[in-house]
Amino acid sequence: MTHDVFGQPTTVKPGPALDAWNKTQLAFLAHGAATPGFLGEALEADPDFALAHAIKGMFYTLLGRRELIQTAEEALVAARTAASGTSISVREQHFIDALDGWVSGNPRRALEHFSAIIDQASDDILAVKLDHATRFVLGDNVGMRAVLEKVMPAYKPSDRGYGYLLGCYAFALEETGEYNRAKFAGREGVLIAPDDAWGLHAVAHVHDMTADAAGGIEWLTGREHAWSHCNNFRYHVWWHKALMHLDLGQHAVALELYDSEIRQDKTDDYRDISNATSLLSRLELNGVKVGDRWEELADLSAKRTEDGCLIFADLHYLLALVGDNRQEDIKTLLGRLHRDAKSCCNDMQKAMSNPGLSAAAGLEAFGEADYEKAFTNLSSANANMQLAGGSHAQRDVFERLTIDCGIRAGYLDEAEAILANRLSSRGGNEDGYTAARRALIADGRAAAAVPSRELA
Ligand SMILES: [Fe+2]
């Protein structure tokens, strides 16, 4: 056994393979674009390194693409073959078994294996980060925070992974409403690990959730180096910045960021489609004309209607199809969603059923301007949208659509109640959206109170 950069015993060959493995982990923690390259180097230097095969498979599953599940399964086979020819550790076997949970559509089983690793070594940052990523996909913010609070005492500020750990902790605190502590942890994390885009982005989330768009822009401006090295996560950070400009009513700036950064590459990665569709949706809800920008998103999403890996991804593909009024593709996606929900039940199919079906029906009705039906379905999904995964900021597009449909359909009391709940989850901090919708609801009530004049 050798020991990696974090002190974890590992069966990787010393020398170039260990060096590449260390770089792989450090890049992964920082969401670095270089991660797969380093992982490839580790496997090239040590083709029998079972753990690297397992992590490679895990990376494929986290991309949330149906066609990559087979590639992840091949990585699982490679990991098992490598493991059979050598003596691997219990820790490494847990990572392989975690991949087995992921490829079978049961990431909750993967969590059991990460927990087993963490129980043995709280300072196993690789297991902690994968646990964090998995709970993010599952929308388990409470579990995410609990794991981090369990392991934090095992770390010292001088530990190599401490800055990245703080970044994860900041995000978990933010997602559970501890905004001040989240901001402090995130800023400290970035100080220790300046390339930790996740921690930097957790602070951006705090600014979003505390209605401090100007402060968020100030935080991100000048810190581009922290996310310019990233994989497509960098588009997500730009998306956060665009949201802040949107909240300040600076729609032209948001659109400029959309064109120059967020959709710089016209990829069909679900996270990129998510950034784009949710920003365009928000802009349109604010009455901004977005031109033909839906078209390329719908073209890409029309090819993903059979995906069904993650409901979070499916709902954003659907947003694109609704945005560009692709009736046939909308029906295809909804048909597949119903089939998946019926064939329940691995972890991912459960989410297809709930909240997926109601949310999708709501989006379809929104596209048809049937706001009553849209509101009924979206508000029904609203209570369980956490199960779709992602962050509060990401799911907020569905909440905004729900509220706007309610207002348009005349359900002012109900829309106001959802708006109040949204405000409460933001610690009572009123953002631009809340202020505008409160005014709209008040106008709606005033209009209803004025008796219409009879025609002469
Ligand atoms: Fe985010």
What is the oligomer described by this structure? Answer: single chain
Rg measurement, Å: 23 Å
- Range of strand content: under 5%
Poorly predicted regions are none
CATH-level-2 architecture of the largest domain:
Alpha Horseshoe
- Strands across the major sheet, in which order? 1-2
- How would the global form be characterised? globular
> What value does the average pLDDT take?
96
Major sheet characteristics? 2 strands, antiparallel
Structure classification: mainly alpha
Distance between the termini: 93 Å
* Helix-strand string: EEHHHHHHHHHHHHHHHHHHHHHHHH
Short description:
The protein is mainly alpha-helical and 456 residues long. It is built from 24 helices and 2 strands.
